[in-house]
Write a structure and sequence with these properties.
Layout: H1 2-14, H2 17-26, H3 33-39, H4 58-79, H5 85-95, H6 98-107, H7 126-143, H8 145-160, H9 163-167, H10 173-183, E1 188-194, E2 204-210, E3 213-220, H11 223-238
Antiparallel strand pairs: 1-2, 2-3
Length: about 240
């Protein structure tokens, strides 16, 4: 009886558009399509499961984030045997940074698989990385750790992770400037003002001050973005003095 049920289930899967799209992407046939359906469901559809719980990618994103961090940590531990904890932590942060995951998710065109009641223009760039982590979570629950590790290696580590390139990659100019100023015993301040103009979208103007001297200024739609942009400009102004 179970044999006939498996045949019927396989036929159902073969007729499912998501199953057909996933098979070449994953490199294997999903066992439980339910996980992948959830991985590509946006909360805007407002679906709930039989227990009344929200049915979308967010919980799988949480699982995928944890599994990805573990696989990357293991890879770095083996790949760079002489590295200390600080180096390994920084390298892992660079690999799993939001910008890096967004780039990979966008390259894989995961958004085309997502079900949503919103127009694609309403999503920010982070949706690409979010879906990638949700997909990793689905693979982990569907196939187990070893298969998920292989998926991460084939789709993230092998094509995107180059140790020598990552060593010089900056993921946060603000963090870099803060660390450099602490090391050099310099006083760093961010002076922020909210624009009071007539624009519909409010902007924040930030001045980065080092030892009482304004080194860089920037303006953006949030304080965080303005501070990061000002830090980037300060870095390029002082890069001859700053060692990564």
């Amino acid at each position: 009886m179970s044999y006939l049920q498996n045949i019927f289930k396989a036929r159902q899967n073969n007729n499912n558009p998501l199953f057909s799209a996933l098979r070449p992407l994953l490199g294997f046939s999903p066992k439980t399509l339910h996980y992948y359906e959830r991985a590509f469901t946006h909360r805007s559809i407002n679906l709930k499961d039989a227990q009344g719980n929200a049915f979308n990618y967010e919980r799988l994103e949480y699982v995928g984030d944890a599994v990805l961090g573990t696989v990357i940590a293991h890879h770095l531990f083996q790949r760079v045997p002489a590295a200390n904890e600080g180096y390994l932590t920084k390298m892992r942060s660079k690999i799993v940074s939001r910008g890096s995951l967004n780039k990979i998710g966008e390259d894989l065109q995961l958004v085309r698989l997502m079900k949503s009641s919103l127009n694609a223009s309403k999503f920010g760039k982070n949706i690409h990385g979010n879906l990638l982590e949700a997909l990793i979570g689905a693979v982990f629950l569907d196939q187990g750790y070893k298969s998920c590790e292989g998926f991460i290696y084939n789709n993230i580590i092998s094509p995107y992770v180059d140790i020598s390139t990552l060593e010089g990659k900056i993921i946060s100019y603000k963090s870099l400037m803060v660390e450099w100023c602490q090391k050099e015993k310099k006083k760093l301040y961010f002076i922020c003002e909210k624009d009071e103009g007539l624009e519909k979208v409010k902007h924040f103007s930030v001045s980065l001050e080092i030892d009482g001297k304004i080194t860089a200024k920037a303006r953006a739609t949030s304080r965080k973005k303005a501070e990061e942009k000002a830090s980037q400009r300060a870095y390029f102004a002082l890069q001859d003095k700053i060692e990564l």
